[in-house]
Specification:
The chain has helices spanning 8-25, 41-57, 96-109, 124-137, 148-159, 174-183, 195-205, 229-238, 261-265, 294-303, 305-308, 315-330, 333-351, 372-384, 414-428, and strands at 66-67, 73-76, 79-83, 141-145, 165-169, 186-190, 212-217, 242-246, 274-278, 288-292, 364-370, 387-388, 391-392, 402-407. The chain has 429 residues and is α/β, with parallel strands linked by helices. Helix 13 (333-351) runs parallel beside helix 15 (414-428). It is globular and about 95 Å long. The protein binds pyridoxal-5'-phosphate. Residues 147-149, 152, 173, 175, 217, 221, 246, 248-249, 278, 280, 288 line the site of pyridoxal-5'-phosphate.
Amino acid sequence: MLAEYMSSEEKRRLLEKILRERIDSSPRPAKIVQSLWKMPDDALLLEKQFRILEQSSGGQLFFAQSEGLNTNVTRIGNRTYVNYCSYNYLGLSGNEEVSLAAKEAIDRYGTSVSASRIASGERPLHQELETELAVMLGVEECVTFVGGYGTNETVIGHLFGPDDLILYDSLSHASIQSGCKLSGAAARPFPHNNWEALNVLLAEQRERYRYALVVIEGVYSMDGDVPDLPQFIEVKKRHQAMLMVDEAHSSGVLGKTGGGIGEHFGVNPHDVDIWMGTLSKSFASCGGYVAGNKELMYYLRYTVPGFVFSVGMSPPNAASALAAIRLMHREPERVTQLRRNANRFRDMAKKAGLNTGNSEHSAVIPIILGRSEPCVTLYRKLFENGIYALPIIYPTVPENASRVRLFLSSLHTDEQLEKTVKLISSAVK
Ligand SMILES: Cc1ncc(COP(=O)(O)O)c(C=O)c1O
């Protein structure tokens, strides 16, 4: 063989030559429409709208850097603002006990579990957190994930397929819609909070599919309204559908002890097939969970890609969520105070003639002004006066429903609430 008489350098060069010839002679596509990634037209439009909004608001509206804790106050650019842009509903992010739990978890387990839980990433904290959540919800088991968005996407995407029907509320979070797409199921929105329309859709379509899933949220984050859960349960039972409830904004907020929309309505927790929630809001951490019966949770733990092929929650994240839930249970007055603050703010706003839409029971309160410009003007006025609340305009909401949206916290003081309502009402009149 010729190769036997070649030096290793000659062999390497020969191999390189053969590979190059192969690549050069491989067929090329005849016509390429677009070779490099380019911003799609609709994204360009969106970007332009964001830019106009940023310019007209007179400050850094997006990606504004908050320094220090993000509670009822926040520090932006050397000034302290009363803060209505945080989901820190119970003030537990920044709480000493919660932070200490995270620090101790780092000392004990490090900052990462470095692997999927199925393959060496399991720590006692994971199971303790899942047990705490399952007990809170009154169901058998729970599985936690590293993010709320990914939880919806991977769980819905994995459990359902082309033979199934998914009906989701028209104001559903993007993560729910993304899960629907991933699943390949026939997925359709039903009119917001309208269980009667859902009933009609299921009556017309249910028979054609294997499973039917209905997805609703405990509190809708644009409007702060709450669905009539008992009615949804009745409809799903009538049509033998499954019901999934996303409690991102209702956990820790609704119910006497913060148990969520199930506790708020006093329903049988087993009537909801999949309870879903995030750990990033009331529970002062980062992550998501689903909870329900043992069999379903067992199946997910061994098969759902976003769990099996992704790292387990980091020790400080698991520990802070666990400490936050335990603290919420030990100090239910935090939930009472949050409810009191939200109700007080809503009542004062309504008395001042402001439009808070359908917000009720929750800690999300929109001030709906209609067109976009007055919302940007209001944002600006509030910001100048030391109050931080962001405008939400078209295309995120319909053009005639633009608003400034406020997230209330148990930490807000009466004085802060009163000042804010006064300022808003004088600014919009
Ligand atoms: C209804 C709903 N579901 C899911 C998510 C995603 O949660 P996370 O931000 O924790 O990933 C959010 C986030 O705001 C949400 O509002």
